[in-house]
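In practice, a research group might receive sequence data for several interacting partners and want a quick structural hypothesis before committing to experiments. The following worked case mirrors that situation: the sequences arrive first, and a predicted assembly follows.
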Amino acid sequence: MNGEPKLRVVIVDDEELARQVLRELAGAHPELEIVAECANGFEAVKAITELKPDLVFLDVQMPKLDGFEVLELTGTNMAIVFATAHDGHALKAFEVHAVDYLLKPFGAERFERALQRARKRIGSPPPPLTQLALAVRPPGQYLDRVVVRDGTRVHIIPTSKLEYVEAQDDYIAIASEGRRYLKQQTISSLEESLDPKCFLRVHRSYIVNLEQVTNIEPYGKDSKVAILKNGTRLPVSRAGYDRLRSVLESR
Amino acid sequence: MHPILSHPRQMLLYLVLWIPLTALLGYLFRASGYSVQEVAILLGVLAPLYALMCLLAWYPCRATPLQRAGSVRIAATLTAAAVVIAGTWMFFAMIYVSVLESFESLRGLASHAGMYRMIFGMGLLLYLVWAAYYYVLLTMEASRQLELRATEARVLARDSELRALKAQINPHFIFNSLHSISALTTVDATRAREMCITLADFLRATLGLGQKTIIPLSEELDLVHRYLTVEKIRFGSRLMIEEKVDDVAVDCVIPPLILQPLVENAIQHGVAHLPEGACIRLSITAKDDRLTIAMENNFDPEIKPKKRSGIGLANVRERIAIRYGDAANFQAAADGDLFRVNISLPAARSIA
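A structural hypothesis for the assembly, expressed as tokens:
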């Protein structure tokens, strides 16, 4: 009975009956303790950050935040088992180091195997988060929104409302509608997931939304400054100015 | 687009056809006493001139197509046009003859009795022959268009059937439904069995609809109800439905799989994205020979519609347009957090 350590489990699925299946299958294992059941991505982010479970069963398509966005915000410091009816996300699941990928409908036997894999994984170090953020972007597509976690609160920022991004050590500050949101990500990895037609790296530490730029003025001997609609002044490096000019001229 | 002027091969055929017509005119002139030389001089100018003028006969024909214009209107238009064109030809003939008269050797051309009457009469006749020819061309073109539209409609209907089947086999629906059934087997075996049966009924009904081009609205509503019953088990209280259907409307006929894709769209892009769920409101009315289908559902405006969404809607729109043309109206638009679809069709009551 006490041979195996207790595993704390969070179940995330927007369908009650799907949660029911997992609850029932987990119920056959006394070493599993279900600490939370979540019906959407927001609840999942809150539960995972507060409860720090050992194992998460995660649906992909859910209201508000999908399963991958949840992981982007919570990190992957736990064993993750996806449970979905879509076989199309398997590759992405592999990229975020999920231990297994359960295809609905699944039964006890398949559940056991996922559990075994999870036990092996628990305790090993999590993959770095920036890689995760990259994996979230579908190939050839750019982000249409950025998700940011602030404690247990989640903010969804549509990229159209993203004004600029500033690098701050390991973090980035995202400015949108008068607020700044901090996120643990490198500016380069975010730059790669933003549409280059709309966003431009104007400086080592700044990405700007081109829609927001009203004016570019000289600043000092060698550099320029970009002035945004809300009055913010952002430094523009020489290389940044060249990129900015070629993008604006080609429009 | 003039069918002869814009097609070189048609132009060639037209000119070739004028050879026997010119010969016929020549024969008539000879019979009324003209010498071969005189006939050649007269027809050498007048026949090509009339060949050009008869190209104009296309326009009144196009303006009064056989299928749409009344017979009285067609007769009146043709007669008026024939008189004008033949009269103009006769007038040109008079000028030409008066010019020819100034040459010594051609004196007396005009003295032949009834020459202008013959020109006018032949002008009328030839004009009508060409008008008939244009009508034949128009009819051929119309039937070709009709065939094309029918083929297009068949392809689209087939397409939508396949799509509908695929939609049922896709992870969104079938696998999730089976998963729900498997959940129910231990907690509520009776409901699990009911869901199995409803799912089977729905699949069977969908398979059968592909062959039909038109079905009573009641049949489509049955299909929608089965679909919703299955989805209701999956989504539980998150899926709310309000339905108002006129008693007279259920007897109207519609192309199959018009409503079901709309409801499916509402669930996939509305209910599935809202934690608290959404309401689908369906209202169908039949009034003044119009069948109006109005559907609205809540959706999350923060979620950008994916490119794939709307394929179902586009297909419904296209099939309606092909079947009813301008007689139907399809509108789909978001209004705040509501998505609305409005379809207006001619109300037909029997299966034609």
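Before designing any experiment, note the following. The radius of gyration of chain A is 21 Å. The first helix of chain A runs from residue 16 to 27.
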